[in-house]
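Title: Comparing notes on inverse folding

I've been comparing how different people in this forum approach sequence design from structure. To keep things fair, I'm posting one structure and asking everyone to reply with a full sequence. Here's the target:
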């Protein structure tokens, strides 16, 4: 669930950054 929240939060500003944050959080 954390990954989804991070992707959504950062995705609102920058989808690319959100994806990177999601991948980093996932690892």
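Reply #1:
Here's my take.
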């Amino acid at each position: 669930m954390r990954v989804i929240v991070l992707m959504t939060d950062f995705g609102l500003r920058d989808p690319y950054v959100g994806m990177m944050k999601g991948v980093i959080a996932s690892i």
